[in-house]
Amino acid sequence: MRYALMTEPQQGLSYDEILAAARTAEEAGLEAFFRSDHYASFPGASGLPTTDAWTTLGGLARETTTIRLGVLVSPVTFRIPGSLAKVIQTADEMSGGRIEAGFGAGWNDEEHAQLGIPFPPLGTRYDMLAEELAIIHGVWTEDGWSHEGRFWQVRGARRHGEIARGGRRHPRIILGGKGMPRLAGLVARYAD
Question: Where are the extended beta strands (E) located within the chain?
């Protein structure tokens, strides 16, 4: 049996507390440590400190050695796909190839409103997620790749060196959400 630890640090955990949890999971022999990607504290008390998911993963990448690290899951609305691909590639390089990249359509309209992040209807977010996955996969796997989409355009993207570890072309991709059957098609095409 394989075990992983999933945390919800938006409920007030500092980076040091997240690091302690990841190190404890690593010492206990767990396979992976995951954290959520939220900017607002919930459920429970609001206004608690929150940390950025990918920034903390970069730190954890340098302060752990064997445990796989991941985000469950990054909402498509939070970051531009090409930039996010570079962030994940960098964290993967920093970790020696231990990153698990989770993506989803997003759901918490309140945290979007708190930071002025647009929150389109669910169907549009799934259209965005499909395009985001195409961009991230293309940027990770093809040199000189281009994409003309409804939401984003990429022209002549250059790969960020050899990011693959253990024969993999890119970090493992995980998709999360309740978008069946739409999500099922994206899982079949992109997810590990």
Answer: 4-7, 32-35, 68-75, 99-104, 145-148, 153-157, 172-175
